[in-house]
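Can you give me the bound-state structure? Components:
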Amino acid sequence: MILAVALTAISLLGTAPHADLVDDMGQAGDAEFTARQLVVCWGDDGAVARVSDIEQSDGMTRVAGPDGTFVIGDGKMIEQYAGGIRYLEMSPTSAWRLWDGYQMTTDPPDVASVLSSGRTVEVTEGGRIRARFVLDEQTGTPLSTQVYDGDGSLYRYSVMMEFRPGDADAMSDMDDMPDPEYRAAASAIDVPSVAGHYWAADSYAAPGGVQVFFTDGLFRFSVFEVSRKSDGGGLSDAPDVEIAGQSGYHRTYTPGAVSVFWRTADRAYVLVGDLPPDHLEAVLQDLPEPGRPNILKRAWRWAFG
Amino acid sequence: MASSEAVPTWEQVASDYGRTIYNFAYRLTGNRDDASDLAQEVLLRVRRGLAGYRPGSFEGWLWRITRNAFLDDVRKKQRRPTAELPDEDRSTIATAPAPEEVLAETRLSAEVQAALLSLPIEFREAVVMCDVVGLSYQEIAEAVEVPVGTVRSRIHRGRLLLRDALEGRV
Amino acid sequence: MHLGDSLSAFLDGELDTGARSDAESHLASCPLCRSELEAVSESSRMLKSLPVAEPPAHLVAPSNVRHLRPRRGRILVGAAAAAALIVGVGFGVNADRAVPLQLDEVVEQHVARASVDPGFNVLQVQAVVDR
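Here's the bound-state model for the whole set.
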């Protein structure tokens, strides 16, 4: 298991800046539990919320929702829906690490926990609160997660309810698994290797283009570089919003993620991720900017690649 | 959105808010012709009212006019709006290429509209102002001329009633 | 004591910090309020996703306002057509045919990769489910 290898390597070196959190998170990934999870996200156009049933065991998390049943973990994504099973597998090449702009405090004295039990871990960035986790004492599972925008307002809140350790069988109803679709490494053309303080960890072939996966260890997003003619999968119907003084972005929120679609002079991009709004703003400023079609640029690419 | 300091011109109001006013009216009446008449009436009242308008909460002022025009209309017609299939959705069915998803979505929005029309007017206007128009509780309170606490309770009860109405229907 | 109409205010970001954290801790322990929150959030979501109805033109564009947009559009089209002629016919012909993007697949591929990172994968899973 790649994750276990990466975590062991970090722990053995003893140089991890936040060894506690790394341990907790590694442990949480291996924990077995069932729970109901409430997630609320406050986007610019109001809040979205969702409650779902979760089961985790053997490093895989199973969630049953209206669109089907998903089992996710360790680079695998298995979707069971009315029409059958889809099975995607990815093998990342880079190990996990945490951005050094974050500071961690365990059990900060002046914070009253929302939950009766659990250890509180607070993440600050430049002295301001960025995230707060309440971790289950035994398994390290984040029972409550709060993510804050740069101005200190709450952006996402999630809480595990009816949390029961043990007694889970995430893969139980996934019979007759088809062969997975593997995603090969690939490179994007106009996506930089650093955006905001996030770094491009690895990139893959994706439906209709290339995926570049960015992370700062705490949050993560993918940028998909696709044809300018892409319809944006319905995202282009979202209102045209201005982000960091630049118009031409179409943005939607779900409780777990923000999605942004935009077209540049000669390509189109989809960004999907869980990063907070002020980080998103900084990231978009480093990515190719929205623009009108540039026929000369397209001709150049067409002729010379 | 107009800033609270400047008094906008009528043309600005029409081009900035025309679509929103029309959608507000359409969701409250469930009928395109009524919505069109109502939006027209609102713009007329805005035109008359702008002369006497003092810079302040423009949104509160505008939505108060809109909402009063709607109530006057309801009183005049002396009938409750009926929960018929909204005509927008019929025309979508007729003209769209009709893949299954579009049909399912259209049916859903027709059901939501019908459920909305079954709510008492106070609850209907509160949830439409909040979720369709996107006003804050304070702005709704100014438009409807009730305390913020009442707005809060109407929005909450309106949403629960909507859920009940939808469950009864599905 | 249940949250009642504070639930909608919580959802709409209309509670102050103190009331919000009170609501959070109550929600953590009260299944009744959670299901009520789910109900109002679903109603709100459905209202927000109602299609925007297009008003008759006279309502948004009063007759005494001059429209500059169509004219500008025509000039642009002309310029684009000229450019297409210069660089070759290939670009003018199918430039407008949309290539469908499967958003589900894009989100799933992001989450599959994200699931390898330690920890917060439960939220990542949520991103797929609530698409």
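A couple of observations. Chain C touches chain A through 63 residues (CB under 8 Å). Helices of chain C lie at 6-11, 17-29, 31-48, 57-60, 69-87, 90-93, 103-114, 121-129.
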